[in-house]
Design a protein that fits this description.
By secondary structure, the chain is an alpha/beta fold. The chain is built from 4 helices and 5 strands; from the N terminus they run E-E-E-E-H-E-H-H-H. The N terminus is likely disordered.
Length: 150
Amino acid sequence: MTDDRGTTTSAWHATAPGVLRLPSGRLVRGRGLRRPLPKGDAPGLGVYLLGKRPPEVPWEARWLPWPDFRLPADRELARKVLREVWERSAGERVEVACGGGRGRTGTALACVAVLDGVPAAEAVSFVRTHYDRHAVETPWQRRYVRRFAP
């Protein structure tokens, strides 16, 4: 199914690699850009958390400037983009990715989990349990999630 922008509006398969199921049932894929693109469905929206502009992709994409092991360069933009991830994941395939798929991606997914109703104090544990046990790599990334409010 496609919407008026021509975007595919079906969700990920819940068992596909890197897919995080949020408490609401929404599915968001996290991945590392240094690894090959997983086989299967392409995202309708990709959000790329990198210190430099990401390569072009054949789907709609957002670049959120975010240096490795750090925090987003523009926190207000981050809030806006992560809200869009949450909203659009209700009906289409959305992926969030950084270089390795753990630190920045895990931090972003934890913030999306907060938007979905996970208490901020539990969001890092939620993402580590349901996405990657090494997600959210630094103390300041953990603090950013704890202070992230819907």
